[in-house]
């Protein structure tokens, strides 16, 4: 039986020592602080947790707080029959070292930080208790720390139910100041329904942390694979940039994901990479009727098109006036207009352009064209499906005489 706060010790296993900590632990913590040389002038404030392990003597594991406000971890090897004690490890913990008041800060190497991993395990265990589920912790992806009335940790972690695929979750854990407790404030899957993410019925909504979301990554890889099969290409998936989702039909369980991804032309070293916009439909199907995924669209984004492009919204194209692809579309628009209307406009230059990812890409181009010595500004809309070598002029409107600022 444990006594004086000390657990029974088994050879080879680390046993937790529960508070109130015996004087022996306080003395060892003070010995470690005073013996270490890396952090001068430290003074022990309190012991936070402790454990011990029988290994040709006893090895003590102690986490402590010093007078500088930081937490430290130390390992002390004691061989009483030799009157010997040695500090094997003394290091400052990342927790408490990066957060600033009111502003969350990323914790470097969070995936291998033992304190972060412990908090993530705690979050999974608490979630299982609260929701009566059986998630198994698989690892930490990233974490941040924020100083509030204590420390607030936001942790992106991987977990899975037995036999199921690994999924990503975000946990918020609070370590209140002055008390040795952990509180799970929130635990949610990163991939939710559009409604859970706050979308108005039928409206697209951003998916948080999409580049780290395993389910979005799987959908992006699926899109690349399906495109390769259909078009006999050899694209190699690289990464997700951004993603949105919306209900296919308001109130349904079917969703359309708009994913901006990067892919390489081949698996060869140094192969050119390009950004693409993929639309993937996921449907809720009974078991045995397929996985419910359908690639609706897969569109290469033009060179110079911003990575911020997302399906459904117009995005300005930088340097449109010198972009060869945009100039070619503008010339095409003028030529098509001349054919349809029997005009003889002469293309002069591009003023600006923007794009919208739909079933293909809509380009709206402001351009200058002239006829009979009079230059005017026009707005043209061109619908492009590059993979089908398809483009169509959908509108061409005169804005007015060329203004001085456009010359």
Automatic annotation (TrEMBL):
<keyword id="KW-0789">Thiol protease inhibitor</keyword>
<dbReference type="InterPro" id="IPR046350">
    <property type="entry name" value="Cystatin_sf"/>
</dbReference>
<dbReference type="Pfam" id="PF16845">
    <property type="entry name" value="SQAPI"/>
</dbReference>
<feature type="domain" description="Cystatin">
    <location>
        <begin position="99"/>
        <end position="196"/>
    </location>
</feature>
<dbReference type="GO" id="GO:0004869">
    <property type="term" value="F:cysteine-type endopeptidase inhibitor activity"/>
</dbReference>
<feature type="domain" description="Cystatin">
    <location>
        <begin position="9"/>
        <end position="93"/>
    </location>
</feature>
<dbReference type="InterPro" id="IPR018073">
    <property type="entry name" value="Prot_inh_cystat_CS"/>
</dbReference>
<protein>
    <recommendedName>
        <fullName>Cysteine proteinase inhibitor</fullName>
    </recommendedName>
</protein>
<comment type="similarity">
    <text>Belongs to the cystatin family. Phytocystatin subfamily.</text>
</comment>
<dbReference type="InterPro" id="IPR027214">
    <property type="entry name" value="Cystatin"/>
</dbReference>
<keyword id="KW-0646">Protease inhibitor</keyword>
<dbReference type="InterPro" id="IPR000010">
    <property type="entry name" value="Cystatin_dom"/>
</dbReference>
<feature type="domain" description="Cystatin">
    <location>
        <begin position="309"/>
        <end position="399"/>
    </location>
</feature>
